[in-house]
Amino acid sequence: MASASRSRRVPVKWVRGAIGAGVLFVALEVLTRAELVTAEYLPPASSILREVFSLLTTRAFLRDLWVTIQACLIGLAIATLVAVPLGLVLGLGRTAYKATIVVIEFLRPIPSVALIPLAILIYGRGTDMKVALVVFACLWPILFNTIYGMHSVDPVAADTARVFGLGRIRIGTRVYLRSASPFIFTGFKIATSIAVILAVSAELIAGGSEGIGIVMLEEASVGNQKTVYAVTIVTGLIGLVLLGALGAVERRMFAWAQAERAVA
Q: I need a labelling partner for 112 at 20 to 30 A (CA). Which of 169, 191, 192, 220 fits?
């Protein structure tokens, strides 16, 4: 019954979101058509929507879109490969955690955007620069969620595993990693949104030759507001699609965690 109710709630959430988007669309259209807002600054919503469909059927724009998504995916993959093992070590070892927490807390507050000039000097203005910034920004939510997940493991479960003769590696994977995996995935979801923001921001600030941020810069320089708004909407759609896909994966992979929370 609980799983059935959850499956019914998901479509309702999307329906409500679609209704909200439709209301906003109509409101913006009315504002412009009634000349309450100058079309030079806010083109009609219908024309922006047509521009979105036009962009998504243009090969050159799709190539720029893929360049941005590629930087996000590569950066996320590298950040995950670094943050998860590091978080497991720091979550299990008190000495390692105390020895590194000062350095981590020093680096974490540094805004990733502030590192763009340094990244340009080291990597240039291409994909490598964007990937490096995405890695730095995405490292922290994955790392701290992994550490938090390791600290939240029930000590009784670990002690029970030791009583049954499981070694440290098997306890780490079967008890600690399994219990921490929902927290790790939550950190990955947070990092996904950050990756999109950082990749596009790096393109807007650093410039370059490819990416949807570059498209926005070029169109803004010639006063093409309609395309700038359309690219902004596409950027939002990227995040929406990625988070929707990750939400579906989370519901399938971690249904056991939701069932345990419901029982508790």
A: 220
Q: How many domains does the chain have?
A: 1
Domain housing 167: 43-263
Query: DSSP characters for 22-42?
Result: HHHHHHHHHHHHTTSS-TTTS
b vs e for 169-206, b when ≥16 Cβ sit within 10 Å of the residue's Cβ?
eebbeebbbebbbbbbbbbbbbbbbbbbbbbbbbbbeb
Q: Report the CATH number that the domain containing residue 101 is assigned in CATH.
A: 1.10.3720.10
Q: Give the burial class of 100: count Cβ atoms within 10 A of its Cβ; 0-12 exposed, 13-18 middle, 19 or more buried.
A: middle
Asked, for residue 150, whether it belongs to a domain, the answer is: yes
Question: Which of 140, 125, 130 is closest to 74 using CA atoms?
Answer: 130
Inside any domain, residue 7: no
Q: Which two tokens stand for residue 124?
A: 């240039």
- pLDDT greater than 80 at residue 5: no
| Total-model pTM | 0.83
Q: Is 55 part of a structural domain of the chain?
A: yes
